[in-house]
Amino acid sequence: MHSSNHRLRDMEQHHPLLSAGGDVESGSLAAGVMVGGAHVDHTAGNRTLWFIQDSCGMVCASMTWFLVLYAEFVVNFVMLLPAKNFWYSLLNGAIFNALAILALASHLRTMLSDPGAVPKGNATKEYMERLQLKPGEVIYKCPKCCSIKPERAHHCSICKRCIRKMDHHCPWVNNCVGEKNQRFFVLFTMYIALISAHALGLSGMHFFTCIKVQWNECSEFSPGVSVLLLIFLCLEAILFLTFTVVMFGTQIHSICNDETEIERLKNEKPTWERRTRWDGMKAVFGGPPSLLWCNPFTGLRLRRLKLLTQTRRPGSEFSI
């Protein structure tokens, strides 16, 4: 029968596997509280908001917001407000702005939610002893973040953490897409695709209408400025629509097949029992099918966001 010291050496030398049942929730997350969750950092004793300090990711996330707000400006001030049909402007304005708010909310939830980070530096002798491993039972240790690595977890070099069911790291949301924020990423791609398609439709209607009348009657801007703004909006909408439709399709495919993008690219043979399609969808979106699946505000507790006096931490994520 092996001693605890022997088990620890085995872990350090061979990096074996932690079974799916060996979830390390008792260690909590070194990143603290997720937005909308009550996951308290038992180790550090403080509450934090997940955010990755990556310059490329922050630039890409800012560009995403800028482009969505640009589309809002063109749709509202170039196309809808100058329109003579009040109900046309009201209906399309309400739909477009509602979808844009949902898209930006989904983006924030994806970016500021912990994707499923494994506790950092928990592969210690004391923690190993608390696991009460059976003789011959082995686990994985990540040599990069010194954490016990659960099954289907992968290390992200940008987040500098092991992420449960990591699908990929997306710079446009400045975060990994993993077990706990995949739902918000799917909603983000869906709503961006919808507002892109809506913007293309409105642009086509606006061009068609303005061709029949004088351009000066179609917008408060000059014809040249209006055309340039609309052309840039159409190019943006086509690119966003193409990208988000592809991403939405791949995410739904991964959820239904219970296989992350990393596992598919690495052609990893499943060592876990795969869920059925509906079980996979319910696991990601929570509960049986309902309108709540489309709500990015589900589970958000605003009182968590009032904790703004925490000190900054070194590393790729910090508390606010």
Question: How would you describe what is shown here?
Answer:
This protein has helices at about 5-15, 55-80, 85-110, 125-130, 180-210, 225-255, 260-265, 275-285; strands at about 140, 145-150, 155, 160-165, 170, 175. The protein has eight helices and six strands, in the order H-H-H-H-E-E-E-E-E-E-H-H-H-H. It has about 325 residues and is mainly α. A two-stranded antiparallel ribbon has the order 1-2.
What's the helix-strand series? Answer: HHHHEEEEEEHHHH
Give the low-pLDDT segments.
1-47, 308-316
Strand residues, percent: 5-15%
Tell me the major beta sheet. 2 strands, antiparallel
- How many strand units? 6
**Overall SS class:** mainly alpha
Radius of gyration (Å): 24 Å
The helix tally amounts to: 8
Strand order of the largest sheet: 1-2
Using the alpha-carbon principal axes, give the shape. elongated
Instruction: State the helical fraction.
Output: 40-55%
Mean pLDDT: 79
